[in-house]
Amino acid sequence: MIRKLFHIWIYALLCFTGPLWAQEEQEEVSFELKLSKEKLGVNEKLRVDFSMNQDGDNFIPPDFNGFRIVMGPTQAVSSTFANRKRYYSKTYSYILAPESKGTFTIGQGTIVIAGNTYKTIPKKVVVTDAVDTPNAPPTVADIADENLHLVAEVSDTNPYLNEPISVVYKLYFRNSLVVTNFDFLDNPKYNNFWNQEIPFSKYRIENGMYQGQPAYFIVIKRMVLYPQKSGELEIEPMVLKVNLEVPTERRNFFGERLYASTEKTVSAGKRLIQAKPLPEEGKPEDFSGAVGDFEFTVDVSRRILNASESLQAKVRVKGSGNLKLFELPKLNLPSALEVYEPEFEEEVRTTLSGMRGEVSENYTIVPSYRGKYPIPEISFSYFNPRTQRYERRSSNELTIEVAEGPTAVPTPGTPPAVSTRTPVVSSDQFHFIKLRPNLEPRAWTPFFGTSTHWISWLGPLALIPLFLLVRKRREKSQQDVEGNKIRRANRLARKYLSAARKTLGDKEAFYVALEKALHNYLKARLKIETSEFSKDKIRELLSSRGADDAVIGEFLGLLENCEMARYSPFSRVQMEQDYETASQVINALDKNL
């Protein structure tokens, strides 16, 4: 009876879990073409694998034009279960030998899986001259050379004069490379360009394509350039020194791939820009160099006012283009109006597409006489690269009416517009200096015998005891020679630790400053000279003073990091950790000692 119940329970369990196993076995079908290398010598061999994650039938390989089949097809099958999931792999492999130099394409392979036909994506192979060591495993430098590239992507190589272009520097890498750090060896100067860098908060790794192959990239720098002369212009190359980790063929005890550190210098290469001159046909006489798409307006803050009151007239250009690289047209005002020098204002935002916003000049105008004053229309011309022609915008004619105030009295031989004017004060905006201030004399107050008189005499006498106390403490401090040495060393250690904080990100300067801070701290606390510093001596002296072994180990670890930093790449995160560790270790040693 018990055996029968047990069989029923097993059957129910299998019926319940069977659909789950079947469900987990259903996964997306993958059928891929994998090459051992994409570039090889004519005397080397190429391995081609067609891999699938589910079993299939009727495999049809491509023709392998340009190659001779040395071996294959060989078949490898793998099937495992882990975490209630089945992992299956089946691979057809070929070993090919190139027949000549050139660029060849490994075509599509086909397979039928669960009644559906799947095809691989073709891949190109470059066959070069014979190599000295055919089929030798690539070195770390070879892998870095093949998979690390710096590219300057230019939005337009044939712009008009003063038309914006963008240059984005991208560092591409693939094949599991890990970029740990990079430094600028040569930064372009962008001669004959007005330029502005577009900043960003942090570097990010993004997915992209390089020469038709998937790759990762990091945006290194973004620039907006406006060519300032026509003809062939050169963008100087950018050069980077990159520290990176390269995967090797070796693996550790757990089967994880080991990485090797290397350093590589990459250059984006120079880029040539062919800047087109602006056309002479149809160029307006008042053209001041504006290139873009703009709106132009002239506005006044008020139309009706009294004499000696002021108004603001604003000449404004708004839109997208070289807003910082041209002059605004000037207002043509009657000479009877008093006009102050205009104040220039700009609200311009620069992105990769160029400058956008507005620029303006604000005129302060003060009429002194009653009447009506016209502000004639003025025009603004610019070249529009989108329509490839010059365009003009004109303002409307405005009239200012001065309702109250004196009437201009013309003098013989002088036009009314420039007649002598008498200032009239009729508002709170403008005032004149008073020639009769109506000052009143103040009564004389005696100084001698007052409280201020006695404080000024007796105050210095009261400070004499305080002065003697400070002098006594200073003499005592000067006699403490050993204590003065310790205090000076402590100050010096804090100074170098502060210097290390300021140089975070600069590996060499940071670890030099940190090492000096640690050495001077030991000199202050252990009273030994720099020549006596060795790890065994430090450990012995700190242990004899009662320092904890863990703190001693952290201190010696910091000194080792300072030495290793000369030969190994250290990231900013590692520097910040070492700085925090140094502060904690010094505080802990102070408590122990």
What is the strand content?
35-45%
Main beta sheet: 5 strands, antiparallel
Query: Separation of termini?
Result: 78 Å
> How many structural domains in the coordinates?
4
Count of DSSP E strands? 30
Radius of gyration: 41 Å
Structural class: alpha+beta
Estimate the helix proportion, in percent.
Answer: 25-40%
Mean pLDDT: 81
Query: What shape does the CA trace take?
Result: flat
Low-confidence segments, given as residue ranges, are: 15-25, 413-430
Count of runs of 4 or more consecutive helical residues:
9
Write up this protein.
- With 593 residues, the chain is an alpha+beta fold.
- It has 4 domains: 31-128, Immunoglobulin-like; 140-275; 295-408, Immunoglobulin-like (Sandwich), CATH 2.60.40; 479-592, Four Helix Bundle (Hemerythrin (Met), subunit A), CATH 1.20.120.
- Helix content is 25%, strand content 38%.
- It has helices at residues 2-25, 140-147, 451-462, 464-479, 481-502, 507-526, 535-544, 549-564, 572-592; strands at 31-35, 39-41, 46-52, 57-60, 67-82, 85-98, 102-106, 110-113, 116-119, 123-128, 148-154, 165-173, 178-186, 193-197, 205-210, 213-227, 231-235, 239-251, 257-267, 271-275, 292-300, 304-305, 311-321, 337-339, 343-351, 354-367, 371-375, 379-384, 389-394, 398-402.
- The strands form 9 sheets. Strands 11, 12, 14, 15 and 16 form a 5-stranded antiparallel β-sheet that branches. Strands 21, 23, 24, 25 and 26 form a 5-stranded antiparallel β-sheet that branches.
- A hairpin with a 5-residue loop joins strand 18 and strand 19 (257-267).
- Helix 6 (507-526) packs antiparallel against helix 8, helix 6 (507-526) runs parallel beside helix 9 and helix 8 (549-564) runs antiparallel to helix 9 (572-592).
- The longest helix has 24 residues, at 2-25.
- It starts with a helix and ends with a helix.
- 21% of the residues are buried.
- Mean pLDDT is 81; it is low at 15-25 and 413-430.
- Keywords: Membrane, Signal, Transmembrane, Transmembrane helix.
- It comes from Robiginitalea myxolifaciens.
- The chain crosses the membrane at residues 454-470.
- This is Oxygen tolerance.
- Residues 1-22 form the signal peptide.
